[in-house]
Amino acid sequence: MTRSYKYIDHEAGITAELSGSSLEELFIAGAEAWLNSVINKVSFENDDSTEIELSGSSIEELLITFLNELNYLLLTKKWINTCVQSIKIFNDENGCELSAELTGSKLPDKIPLKHEIKSVTYHQVEIVKNDDTFTTIVVFDI
């Protein structure tokens, strides 16, 4: 499986183009783009884990909900997700569901945020499948 993200110029916030060989890889690429938007590269002891379950009416809504959940954990719980250990996405005519195991740790006070993301927006989010790759654009509102 492959995944990647790259930041692109955009007039609103921090914008990343995500790609993955599966929906799961696309979501993990989004988590990595989010992480590198909020903090500089530092080593963390992944001494904690949490499980999340989310739902949405579309796969795009589920992606935004997932990334906003990571942001919520950081801003309200001071817990930073540094790795998505496992992720499962279910998508059918009744909607979409996600279950994931995240590893991370409490954010030490001595580590400042690079950017405080207010929200992950729906602006330009459209997940497209071309051949064997899923792509989309996400905008982090700062």
Give the strand content.
35-45%
CATH superfamily: Archease domain
Query: Per CATH, which architecture?
Result: 3-Layer(bab) Sandwich
- Coarse structural class: alpha+beta
- Cα end-to-end separation: 31 Å
CATH topology: Archease, Possible Chaperone, Chain: A, domain 1
What are the defining features of this structure?
142 residues, 5-stranded antiparallel β-sheet, Archease, Possible Chaperone, Chain: A, domain 1, 2 helices
How would you describe the overall organization of this protein?
The chain is of the alpha+beta class. The chain has a single domain (3-141), classed as 3-Layer(bab) Sandwich (Archease, Possible Chaperone, Chain: A, domain 1). The protein is built from 2 helices and 8 strands. The protein has helices at 23-38, 59-77, and strands at 3-8, 14-20, 48-56, 79-92, 95-106, 119-121, 128-130, 133-141. Strands 1, 2, 6, 7 and 8 form a 5-stranded antiparallel beta sheet that branches. A 3-stranded antiparallel beta sheet has the order 3-5-4, covered by helices on one side. Helix 1 (23-38) runs parallel beside helix 2. It is globular. The model has no long low-confidence stretch (mean pLDDT 92).
